[in-house]
Structures are given as structure tokens and as C-alpha cells.
Amino acid sequence: MLVEEEIIGETYKVLMDYIFKNCNFISLIKRYNQHEVDTKRNINIILSSSGYSVDEIIEQYSDEFLEKIYEKFKNDEQIFNDNYIKKYESDEIGKMISYHNRWGMTSGAIVWLYYNEMTLKWLNKNKVNIVNCKKNDNALGNPGVYHSDTYTIKLTDSIKSELVNKKSLYDWGYPDSLEDICFFKDGYCFLETISHESLCFIYCDNEEEYEYLKSIGIKFFEKEFKPTKMDKWKYSDGNKQ
User: Fold this and answer.
1) 47-81 pLDDT, tens per residue?
2) How does pLDDT run across 24-46, given as a tens digit for each residue?
3) Among 135, 127, 219, 163, which residue's Cα sits nearest to residue 23?
4) What values do phi and psi take at 95, rounded to 5?
């Protein structure tokens, strides 16, 4: 059942208490970079020319830092050659496209570096609690071509502490962390999020649970309880990867 408003404040805290009592696993998604080769190349150029180490970039990461990187490298000939300029800057629309592309190929590369470092660090910290890693096909359904990994992880005290310190379920998102947190109860998805679209679905077991969630301040688009078929949300324990 689709949640109408972002769950924040006291409602978020009470929901977390309920989840901690009833759920024992979460899942989180790590995205792939669809332009990995170019991104790695540009990151290497930026690292070698700027004098920053990866650790220094992570420490200084901010909107101001990204703008600084963009200004320094927006005209770098190692990244942008004459063919690029001819392709994108022949008219005003092309210049606008060029700006976004240049930002993406400089500052955007640093955003991806930050995302990758932060998510790998988190996964490494929680690796003993990962029970499954499922590779997800890309949107075109090309076999063997993947766009993300979905990790199923035990809901530990450490993760509970992280959840308590967040303001919203949508705080699990690019580039600061893994994305789209879901909670599992008795092997089935109880709550699912799509962070970048600010979407949350809660699959209530029964009308009593639905009414309780409403009573703590959660607003559903459905004004009456509707049973949800849960089979498709059952996760696979699989093997640790």
C-alpha cells in the first residue's frame, strides 16, 4: 500500500520501534556506473592533476568542493578534446548540454568516487551480516548486463542505531549511502522504498496492522485496508558473497 507523505518526526521514530520488534532483515541497493571506463579515466586525471588523494576528497566533499573541481577541470584538454567541442558547442542548446556534460565528466566523476567509497566502506563494515547479494539486470533486460546489486543484510544493533539517527527512510540514497532500503518480516517484504522517487510502500499483514500504522501518523493513499499478495517479496537467503 502506497504511503502518501514522507514519514518523519515522531511518526518515523515510532515506526522504527515497530520495525525493530517485527523485522529481522533489510535490503539495500548499490548502483553500477554505466560509464565506468570513462569515469575511472577522468577520476585518475583529476587525482593526478589536482594533488588530492582519495581520502582528502572524501574528507572535503561538499557542494563547494564539487564546484571547485568543475571550475578547475571544465576546460581540461585531457578530458575534453576538439571533437567534444564541435559536437556540443555549435549553438546555445549545445552549450547548455556541454555545461551539463562537463559538470558530469568532472564533478560528476567525483560524486561517483564518493558514492563508491562510502558504500564499499559501509558494506565492508557489515560484511559478516550480508546473507545474499543479487545482481539485477539492466532496464533493457540484456542477459549478463547488470545495473545494480541488492544486498540482504541482518538488521543488527549497529544498523538500528543508524536508522534512529536518520530523519527519513529516504536518507538512504545516492551519493551518501546505499539506496532503497526495504525491511523484511518473516521472510517477506514489510516496507519498500524507492529513495530517489520518494516512494514508500508498506505491505500490511492484516487490517489491525493497517489501523495501527495509521494511528501513529502514517497516511496511505488507500483509505481502507486491502490485502496484499506477498509471495513475490520473499527474499532468498542464498550464499554470502
Assistant:
1) 999 999 999 999 999 999 999 999 999 888 888 87
2) 999 999 999 988 998 999 999 99
3) 163
4) -65, -35
Residue 29 in grid coordinates: 541497493
Rounded CA gap, 145 and 139, in Å? 9
Name the strands in the sheet holding 199-202, side by side, starting at the edge strand that comes first in the sequence. Answer: 130-137, 146-154, 25-31, 179-185, 188-194, 199-202
Give all strands (DSSP E) within the chain, no chain letters: 25-31, 130-137, 146-154, 179-185, 188-194, 199-202
**Which pairs from 35-40 meet CB under 8 Å and 24+ separation?**
38/105, 39/108, 39/109, 39/112
Q: Domain coordinates of the chain in residue numbers?
A: 9-24+155-233, 36-116
Q: Give backbone dihedrals phi and psi of 216, rounded to 5 degrees, phi first.
A: -90, 0
> What is each CA distance from 117 to 111, 113, 174, 178, in whole angstroms?
10, 6, 12, 11
Q: Kindly state the greatest CA–CA separation across the chain.
A: 65
Record the cell numbers describing residue 2, joined without a space.
Answer: 502506497
Neighbour tally for 7: CB within 10 Å: 24
Rounded distance between C-alpha atoms, residue 216 and residue 15, angstroms: 8
Count of CB atoms situated within 10 Å of the CB of 231:
6
